[in-house]
Amino acid sequence: METKPKLSLMSKISYGLGAVGKDMVYMLSASYVLYYFQDLLGVSAVAMGTILLVARIFDAFNDPLMGVVVAKTKTKWGKFRPWLLIGTLTNAVILFLMFSCPPTLDAGGLVAYAAVFYILWGVTYTMMDIPYWSMIPAFTEGGKEREGLTTLARSCAGVGSAIITIVTMLAVQFLGNAFGGTNATEIEIVGFKWFALIVAVIFIVFTILTCIFVKEKSTTEMKTVSVGQMFKALVKNDQAMTVVIAIVLINTAIYITSNLVIYFFKYDFGGPSWFGDYTLFNIFGGAVQILSMMILYPVLRNAMKLSNTKIFYTCLAMGIAGYAVLLALAILGMSNVFVLFIPGFFIFAASGLLNILTTVFLANTVDYGLLKNGSSDESVIFSMQTFVVKLASGIAAFAASICLQIAKLQEGTEVTEEAKAIDWSAGVTTAQKMGLRMTMTIIPIIGLVVAIFWFRKKFILTDEKVLEIAEQVKDLKANVEE
């Protein structure tokens, strides 16, 4: 059997850069497309929420279809890299166009523009995302090399997301002023356009490096998964179903807050430099989230010898406590951003740790399914993970849009440009602020509490049980080989 040569350092770096660029694009769209169209351009919040939710449901069918297309591709450059490059180029163009919407369009035109370009963005993102992750077996050996590269790519993806979280609003303000914005709203509209162009260019450059330095060294067969197979596998594997529902509950809670936090700083926290405070809060939060994955989890797991289930429940409790403190501080009218670091630490740390834990739990259901049903359905289960994360983001965006529609933050801020320049929260009533605060804290608390009760009732794959199953699977495979 021919083995692949070990990966070079340049291959690892260039593949990691691909993840950085890919998730910069994803985070820009996921975090700011609702704000851009609803708050800056005036599109109905409910219309935007519906567009975002429908697009995510559409992904349930688009993802497997793209998987089939990639699997059947045969070129002298391989099956993955052509689609990786084509998807990146088209997605970068769509990203720029999506954040270049003409503000002069009427209400119907704005809704149509948002719907067309956001759906196209999702389709073209899938076009490059599926081959990016699916190509790993084509240029790595199994075991530690493959696990190490996957971990590196996931970490680089987190860096890409953190970069967007940290720099977006400062870059938007700078570029908007540099390219001729004449008032507060126009500065942001212009700024988003040029910032999207910069991100698109970085995305293209990083993907080209990936395509150049990462060579497919085998004709690895790529398993494709239908929507029907996903749900059939979940019905058979009760533990996978348990983890998937927990992922939806947890991610929906977290994404609701991430969609609304910019509105909190702009219309509630307020002040002439709200975007500076917002950026500072995100710098702190991004650092906590990354460090919790890289340092805190190993400390809790290895140094303190805590089980994954104990860490999981601790994280959920941390998140609930963080949201409760955030609500209390908001009601008390705190105006110092550093005070918000207290609840921010608990929420961001919990978010980072839960990302790791849910992935670990889902991986553990594979061997459980093999023993229970005679098939591991590994590719099916992990395809479902991608879908449910997207579904959670759609549900969260829809919930956030309902909050914005009821609170009428945009319509209710009928103040002059001069007043907005001093304080964007001018004219926002206490009732509007309370609606925003309760949506971004109480609904997530409810979601996390339900996740605790659901998990305690249904989940059985403790550390001890996982070790027991691993031994049984080992014996099973040994008997099959004999």
Structure notes:
Helix 11 (308-332) packs antiparallel against helix 12. The protein has 16 helices and no strands. The chain has helices at residues 9-40, 45-71, 81-98, 107-134, 136-139, 144-178, 184-213, 227-236, 238-269, 274-303, 308-332, 341-373, 378-407, 417-422, 430-458, 463-481. With 482 residues, the protein is mainly α. Helix content is 80%, strand content 0%.
Mean pLDDT over the residues = 84
Please give the share of residues in helix: over 70%
Radius of gyration of CA atoms, rounded to a whole number: 23 Å
Tell me the structural class: mainly alpha
Which characteristics define this entry?
482 residues, mainly alpha
Give a quick precis of the structure.
The protein is an all-alpha fold. The chain is built from 16 helices and no strands.
SSE arrangement:
Layout: H1 9-40, H2 45-71, H3 81-98, H4 107-134, H5 136-139, H6 144-178, H7 184-213, H8 227-236, H9 238-269, H10 274-303, H11 308-332, H12 341-373, H13 378-407, H14 417-422, H15 430-458, H16 463-481
Helix pairs in contact: 1-2, 1-3, 1-4, 1-6, 1-7, 1-9, 2-4, 2-13, 3-4, 3-7, 6-7, 6-10, 8-9, 8-13, 9-10, 9-12, 9-13, 9-15, 10-12, 11-12, 11-15, 12-13, 12-16, 13-15
